[in-house]
Design brief:
about 130 residues, mainly beta, Thrombin, subunit H, 6-stranded antiparallel beta barrel, 1 helix, about 15% helix, globular
Length: about 130
């Protein structure tokens, strides 16, 4: 797995620097749709502020979804459930996929701690 950062789906400051460092990931995420159904998407990168997913349909900017995914740690996976808002939808070439850029809007304290631990581990791996 590559340890590079990505520039997708993150708010930028006025001087064009990202608020949070992003890390490449490769695992499945679940999206709860407005009708209550749940679909699978491919997680591409993550930061403390958001996540970028690839999925087979676009979503409207501003729409809020519940997301769930398991973050891999050395000996276990930890489930993360957050609410996140679409900030950008992009067409990905000719693969009939869409890139969905989310910013986290509701993250519980326990989930925030899990995200922090995961990001810290990823930072250590890049040193």
């Amino acid at each position: 797995m590559e340890e590079e950062t990505s520039e997708d789906a993150e708010a930028v400051t006025s001087n064009e620097q990202r608020v949070y460092e992003r890390f490449r990931i490769n695992f499945k995420a679940l999206i709860r749709l407005s009708d209550g159904g749940v679909v699978r998407a491919q997680a591409v990168d993550i930061s403390m502020g958001g996540i970028y997913l690839e999925y087979g349909a676009p979503a409207d900017v501003g729409k809020i979804f519940e997301l769930a995914f398991d973050l891999p740690f050395a000996t276990e996976f930890k489930r993360v459930i957050v609410k996140a808002q679409i900030v950008r939808t992009v067409v990905i070439g000719s693969r009939e996929l869409y890139g969905l850029a989310f910013v986290f809007t509701e993250v519980g304290k326990d989930v925030e701690k899990i995200l922090e631990q995961y990001i810290q581990l990823r930072k250590l791996k890049t040193i």
